[in-house]
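P.,

For your records, the input lines for the assembly:
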Amino acid sequence: MTAIDPTAHLTAEQIEELGRELDAIRDEVLADRGEKDAAYIRKVISAQRKLELVSRGVLLFSIFPPAWLIGTAGLSVAKIMDNMEIGHNILHGQWDWMRDPKIHSTTWEWDHVSPADQWKHSHNELHHTYTNVIGKDNDLGYGIMRVDEDQRWHPFHLGQPLWNFINACFFEYGIAAYDLELGKNLHKRRRKNPEFRARARAVGRKIRKQVLKDYVIHPLLSGPSFLTTLAATFTANLVRNLWTHSVIMCGHFPEGVQVFERRSIKGETRGQWYLRQMMGSANISGSKAMHFMTGNLSHQIEHHLFPDLPSNRYAEVAVKVRALFEKYELEYVTGPLPKQVFSAWHKVFRLSLPNKKPKVETPDREQELVAA
Amino acid sequence: MTSAALRSRAWKMLEMVTTPLLPSDYLDLVSPLRAGADLRGRIEAVHPETRDAATIVIRPGRGWRGHTAGQYVRVGVDVDGVRLWRAYSLTSPTHRQDGRVSITVKAIPGGKVSNHLVRRAKPGTLIQLDQATGDFVLPAAKPAKVLYLTAGSGITPVMGMLRDTEFDDVVMVHSAPQPQDVIFRDDLHRLVADKKLRLTELHTDTDGMLDISRLDELVPDWAERETWACGPAGLLDAAEEHWTAHGVRERLHTERFRPSIVAVGDGGEVTFSTTGKTADADGATPLLDVGEEAGVLMPSGCRMGICFGCVTPLKAGAVRDLRTGEITEAEPGVLIQTCVSAAAGPCDIER
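Structure tokens returned:
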């Protein structure tokens, strides 16, 4: 917890009122959700598939540099669309209401080495429920970084700018390892746990399929363009990983975003839960294209308040949410992508070094440190 | 290697190319009605029949196995973006030259799908289909004398029969509120003019409901006829009683349209059909808690409706969303979030 609580000026009643106002915003969208939204996601899915098909087709001739460039760019965008606006949002159940078994959180699989069901558990359940609660939400630094002054410093953290960069390049593998809770589960005793082994096997299968497709089958189909297709797919995966990592860093890492201690969420009310989501997330400002390419995670604050609302509605919701931030005198953390990315990286560098402990420590926190 | 084995191996290869999607996900973009695709149909025309009924002409996908006169088909239609399934009788003859089939739909007050199909359906729209089913059909051996006893939209399966098979001696007794409410009225009168049908048309707004004892007067030899009856439950109940009382029950074939009547209330008995457990639930306790309390292994996650880790099929009954108060009724394929849903009447959860 940062030394100064930016929500200290709110009374308990105000926080509950804020919760009711947010519920009203949600209900408004639910009442209006319908045919247009369904048409939107169908159109996006169809466009993504066509783009991927065409790009892979062009890459069959990637021995010619212009074909390589066009195919690689297309495939990169297709993979980003698959992961962001389509995969992430469908797996959140945002489109379950359509009752279309093909566009449903229980059946969707994405172009990613982490199997959808494992990701849903660590992301939807752990991260979205316990957003920014140290020790509960491991998205805070993915277990390899220190992202708040209150977290204990360890010499390992000196290397965190490097860890973060490597994680960015191979982000989908990082996520798969993270969803498996690899750090914790590689301990001797846990390694043999049958449940963990089954999940690890599922990841292995998914990796094998993905790698086979991207780095063996499609290059082979390209014949003389084998090597250039291989390079193109590698590049597209790298671009997708760097892009998604950047977008996701902007969601919770920029300066101004709050983190919370475990004790603070005991007996949390709906209003308090909403408030934590508001203070624990940050947006990216930009054009429509920008919002689309981030899977509308540029509206991270709105997404965290209403993770199951269709992503195409976040932009209109954002106007109302922002008005509430102003009404309740709270800081709406947002900025253009380069600024937010810089801010997040700056924090990664800053916290790689030890800092002085904040002078005022709450008794809660001390107890927790002792307990830990 | 057999050709089937070869095909399946080729398909496996193709799956490796398209993973994590399936080849069909791409093929559906260009050819949703092809052989091997999930069964779908394309609406090709909508013909109004009465002020609240219309015939929907559908081109079924290649996987359509045809139907027998009198059968119905379940169709999945997207209404306001939500896929809803309903069953409608097929009204086209079984072997139309153009391979198309038709259903005839009467818009019922408040009916989401029927009103959508009658008033808003557009040619070109894709709908989902199941194979035709139902045993309200004609027998293989032609009966000498036939009676069709119908009312309202109960005419629809019978129209499928009339258009499919000609009999030497056919009588129909049909009830509808007013002449303009008689679906297929022109077709029926044309059959009468061609002497292919003897028709008694009753208009219940002026004549009152059909009194089954009047049948002796309308169709004196009714007991000798193989009879197919379709219409509201009242009519069918009366017919079954009448035929049984005269010892000719085996000559009567009935079709009941069963609109699932869901008792919506506050709480109710919850059946967990996979494990066979039941529990009483009030209208405020999440079904997840009810299930766990009853010792059912329930999938769970955030317990606040955000992670979708607890979604479970609702097989029967109705539930209420504890956040919005919205009621969801059971339909095939309906999944609910058990952590934010409470019983709204008796319901069946597949766990």
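Two observations worth noting. The longest strand of chain B covers residues 40-50. Residues 3-18 of chain B form the longest helix (16 residues).

Regards
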